[in-house]
Write a structure and sequence with these properties.
Elements (H helix, E strand, L loop, with lengths): L6 H23 L1 H4 L19 H20 L5 H18 L6 H15 L2 H21 L4 H5 L1 H12 L8 H8 L1 H14 L4 H19 L8 H18 L16 H16 L24 E6 L15 E3 L5 E3 L1 H9 L7 H14 L6 E6 L11 E5 H8 L11 H4 L1
Antiparallel strand pairs: 1-3, 1-4, 2-3, 4-5
Length: about 425
């Protein structure tokens, strides 16, 4: 009997190899994010890690790369060890810097744990429901006014621009058209959830991700390579997990893992499935809540007085945007893309840490304001903004969060 005898085992071995390859490529395109660096502030998830030495980052980066490589090529009996190693190294590295908790890293962590602890049939079932939930939660996070007015318009402009129809529709029609994006995601999720319609779901998912690749790729918004790689992963993931496979089942089946291991996998899947329910209430960050390309998320901005902005280094000058009242806003999102080749973590807690690091590191805290903006109202699009002036008030702002918002010492001093 072959090492991978059932259809579920075949799916799973190719799926883990897909995740390993994509993980390695994404680590490669964003290598600065995972190594010790001072190009961009780092904000640990826990305050006890603020003073962590840089050597730990390097060790974990090597561990992540080696574990993913082993997970890619290891035989079945060794693959669970590689999966655990990858999940643990990624988790530890993300704790040292919340910026590293990219959606693909989160996916690799929970998938590795589930695959390592559950038999193939159960693992495939759990992974299917998680993928379905990603489409559904992502869609629900966009069915609101902020998306219709912001990110949805950006996507729509690309599509209409290709056919020369940017000015063809009125404002109300344009806002309605933006809802086609989340409704497409929601339709994919529903079709994949029903066994009889899974083929249609896979086909629609392929069309949707291919279209998204065009929109965010070089012909459209020209997003960073990681966005394209993760979309390619979803493009391949749908048929791997959901397309029916005609394969004769063997009489002999592998002995299932011990119940305690299966409980870990089921617990992990339950957490991933249920945690996003807390995102609308503000108790779950956008990315773990699968609020992808959402416009309502919380954020924080640093405003620097005009004269003080001259003290910033040359590398930050391209990311300073002058305001109507003469101060300059630091565009930390664009800075992240240029410095680390990754999108900024979409949360006011992390972005508060970035702002404090810049203000402290370059001695402009006395001449700066921190603007912390709560998530936008989903129907009116309005936000509550709180401003903190000077170093003492900025430090006070970090106390509003459950997790740490202080930057690592070596980057903030």
């Amino acid at each position: 009997m072959s090492e991978f005898s059932t259809s579920e085992e075949v799916r799973l071995v190719y799926y883990r190899r897909l995740l390993a390859v994509v993980g390695l490529l994404l680590i490669g395109t964003s290598y600065k994010l995972w190594l010790p660096q001072t190009d961009y502030p780092q904000v640990p998830a826990l305050s006890v890690l603020v003073g962590a030495p840089a050597a730990i980052d390097f060790v974990l980066a090597v561990g992540i790369f080696g574990s993913l490589l082993a997970w890619l090529v290891a035989p079945k009996r060794i693959a669970p060890l590689a999966a655990w190693s990858a999940a643990c190294c990624l988790t530890a590295s993300c704790l040292l810097d919340q910026h590293r908790f990219q959606p693909w890293a989160y996916q690799v962590i929970f998938a590795a744990v589930i695959i390592a602890t559950c038999e193939a049939k159960l693992a495939v079932r759990l992974l299917r429901w998680i993928v379905i939930s990603i489409y559904v939660y992502s869609a629900l996070s966009k069915l609101n006014t902020p998306f219709m007015l912001d990110e949805g318009q950006t996507f729509l402009n690309v599509l209409l621009g290709w056919v020369g129809a940017k000015e063809a529709f009125g404002e109300t029609t344009r806002q309605a058209l933006t809802l086609l994006f989340p409704l497409g995601e929601l339709t994919v999720g529903v079709l994949l959830a029903i066994p009889r319609t899974r083929k249609a779901g896979v086909i629609l998912a392929a069309v949707m991700h291919a279209s998204l690749l065009l929109v965010v790729g070089p012909l459209g918004l020209n997003h960073w390579p990681g966005v394209l790689l993760w979309n390619l992963c979803f493009l391949a993931q749908a048929p791997l997990l959901f397309w029916p496979i005609a394969m004769k089942e063997e009489d002999e089946t592998a002995e299932p893992p011990p119940a305690k291991w299966r409980a870990i996998g089921i617990g992990m899947a339950s957490l991933v499935l249920l945690l996003p329910l807390l995102e609308p209430a503000g108790y779950c960050d956008a990315w773990p809540g699968w609020a992808l390309y959402a416009s309502h998320v919380s954020r924080a901005d640093l405003y620097i007085d005009g004269a003080a902005a001259e003290a910033l280094p040359e590398k930050l000058r391209p990311f300073l945007i002058e305001t109507e009242w003469g101060a300059y806003r630091l565009d930390a999102s664009q800075w992240s893309l240029h410095a680390l080749n990754v999108p900024i973590y979409p949360d006011d807690r992390f972005q508060t840490g970035v702002a404090i690091a810049v203000a402290q590191r370059y001695g402009v805290a006395l001449f700066s304001q921190l603007s912390v903006q709560d998530p936008a109202d989903r129907w009116r699009g309005e936000r509550t903004e709180t401003r903190y002036r000077g170093p003492e008030q900025m430090t006070e702002a970090t106390k509003r969060f459950w997790l740490n918002a202080e930057p690592r010492d070596r980057l903030a001093r």
